[in-house]
Design goal:
The protein has a domain of 67 residues. Helix content is 57%, strand content 0%.
Length: 103
């Protein structure tokens, strides 16, 4: 008899969509939160469901993808902050609307 696969499928993305499904491992919020307390049979059932959903990509590849996503999210946040600063600076330099109409 083989041992069921009960490894934690987490890849450290841990972002949830509006339905409460993790974008990294495709588990529900409840499954993620209670993973350590679930029985081995329940864990094996969840892992089986994830495989049926197409989570066949090797764990190392999923981790690499997750790492890249986190890096891109950081870059996007930095760029959005910079863009906000530049927009504020531009607004300070722009002439008031009344001056534009007079010209």
């Amino acid at each position: 008899m083989s041992t069921p696969d009960t490894r934690n499928p987490c890849i450290k993305v841990c972002r949830f969509d509006s339905a409460g499904t993790c974008l990294g491992c495709l588990r529900t919020r409840s499954e993620v939160k209670h993973w350590k307390r679930l029985s081995d049979d329940t864990k094996a059932a969840i892992v089986g469901r994830l495989r049926a959903l197409g989570l066949e990509e090797p764990r190392a590849d999923r981790k690499k993808t997750a790492k890249r996503l986190k890096k891109l999210d950081r870059k996007i946040r930095k760029l959005e902050a910079k863009l906000g600063t530049l927009r504020a600076e531009r607004a300070d330099l722009a002439p008031p609307p009344a001056l534009d109409a007079a010209d």
